[in-house]
Amino acid sequence: MILLQIVIPAVFVFVVFIVGHLFVTSDGSGLYVTEINFDPETVLEEPKEVDPLDIDPETGLILPDKYNYLKIENVFSGKIMGSDKLFSIEVALLTKQPTISSDLFISALYEMEPDLIAEITTVILEVSADQLLAYDGREKLSLAIQRHVNEYLVGLDMFPGITEVFITNFNIV
Fold first, then answer.
1. Dihedral in degrees, nearest 10, Cα atoms 125, 129, 133, 135
2. Which domain holds residue 165?
């Protein structure tokens, strides 16, 4: 009885498989692309110069990019221009670089955090209510901080590696 319970379903599966392949026509299975546009000039790029720190010593491969950030511990606060309201902002600086370079860059920024606070303060001195209340305004403020700090880093002969600035917290009183 057990033999019939195994043999009959197996025979049925094989018969359905064979009949299906005999009566159903196909050009094959899988995804086939009929036309491939290949332009060797756009595919081949000049190899970029690689920093030796970005090469894995064990494999010899280039390390992948890594997001790393520095949260500025200072809370920036002041009076909104043209208003009697007060504000406070907290900021984080983000970089995306190969693994080791990212860590070294953030540790260098950490060492110079008081200078970064002073530079960010110069941007935040003239903040308006529109910049803080509207999403677009906060985005423009973040971009202004990013540009200013990157320019400051260039002035110090450092790599301007801050890719984004996030306003992690803001309050208006």
1. -60
2. 63-172
